[in-house]
Specification:
The chain is α/β, with parallel strands linked by helices and 327 residues long. The protein has eleven helices and 13 strands.
Length: 327
């Protein structure tokens, strides 16, 4: 039976839902994507995910009887052990949804639910940039900042499955207000949202910059636009990237000093800025981190891109299936 064992991973995002099928060696068989339908009821969203999975099984010619387990990654607050997703930002009708029970009743296979960033981390740990590493941290720099933390070969969950909210470390007690209620949260500076705010503040002081001209022409400010201006030598873009990189370094120093990781993996949309922010970040880290943990820490880009969540979800599903079938 193991030769035909198939595992599925679902990654539910605010805009799109993704599902992939893998064999028992985690070789991907196929994937399918569709809008998340975030404004619909929880039942409609779950039916949409089930239809996405069913469609992929048909498209790949996979016998549904060979599907052994399913893992699902979703953002927001949850009870991992109970398999209940409590709350998803931007999903207004989603409250206390028994995701695992719903899918196990539908599919009659083991199902695992976890936070989307932890699923990304499991993916990178199993098949990507953290493979073979026992102490690693994945940072996703997107509209916010998420993190998955692996310490001594185990994923860190915390008392309420909330461990990893590194984006809400305060790096400035008199800084920008955050939606969480805190002041000066790291993600208000190093996320895509934070980068745009820093850019707007810089443009206000330098109305003749290339970025100001582009904005005056009606172009919306994006991280990609700031990168383009940087590459054209725009002084404001350089100031913004240097400042953002330094703020990134501030948080990374704390992470290195506190967790002593062997690998820090940078993913998410902001990772596309690459050396534009990583060079000033590394400069700050080299100047301020404790020497011993700094020497052991390697900062690398994520390897799996937006597939990581599906890979990690399949990994978790396979682990639950294997545990259930252990003699």
């Amino acid at each position: 039976m193991m030769g035909n064992a198939i595992f599925a991973g679902i990654d539910l995002g605010g805009t799109n839902a993704k599902v992939a099928l893998f064999d028992d060696q985690l070789h991907q068989i196929g994937e399918k994507r569709a809008p998340s339908r975030a404004t619909e009821s929880a039942d409609i969203i779950l039916e949409n995910l089930a239809a996405l999975l069913t469609g992929l099984l048909k498209e790949t010619g996979t016998d549904p009887e060979d599907l052994m387990a399913l893992g699902i990654g979703v953002p927001g607050l949850m009870d991992v052990q109970a398999g209940i997703s409590h709350y998803l930002a931007n999903f207004p009708q989603w409250r206390d949804v028994p995701v695992v029970q719903w899918f196990e009743n539908r599919l009659h296979i083991p199902v695992v639910l976890d936070n989307d960033v932890r699923m990304n981390t499991y993916g990178e740990w199993s098949e990507g940039a953290a493979k073979g590493v026992q102490n690693a941290i994945l940072l996703t720099l997107g509209t916010g900042v998420g993190a998955g933390i692996i310490l001594e070969g185990k994923m860190l969950y915390g008392t309420t499955d909330s461990a990893g909210e590194l984006g809400h470390m305060s790096i400035n007690a008199n800084g920008r207000p955050c939606n969480c209620g805190n002041i000066g949260c790291w993600e208000r500076y190093v996320s895509a949202t934070g980068l745009i705010q820093t850019t707007q503040e810089a443009i206000a002081k330098a109305p003749t910059s290339v970025l100001a001209e582009w904005q005056a022409e009606g172009q919306p400010l994006t991280g990609k636009m700031v990168s383009l201006a940087y590459d054209e030598g725009d002084a404001v873009a350089h100031e913004v990237m240097n400042q953002t990189g330094e703020w990134l370094g501030v948080g990374l120093v704390s992470i290195i000093n506190v967790f002593n990781p062997e690998r820090i993996i940078i993913g998410g949309g902001m990772a596309a800025a690459g050396k534009r922010i990583m060079t000033p970040a590394q400069k700050y880290i080299d100047a301020h981190a404790l020497a011993q943990p700094l020497a052991a820490a390697k900062i690398v880009p994520a390897a799996l891109g937006d597939r990581a969540g599906m890979v990690g979800a399949a990994v978790r599903g396979r682990a639950k299936w294997a545990k259930n079938n252990a003699s």
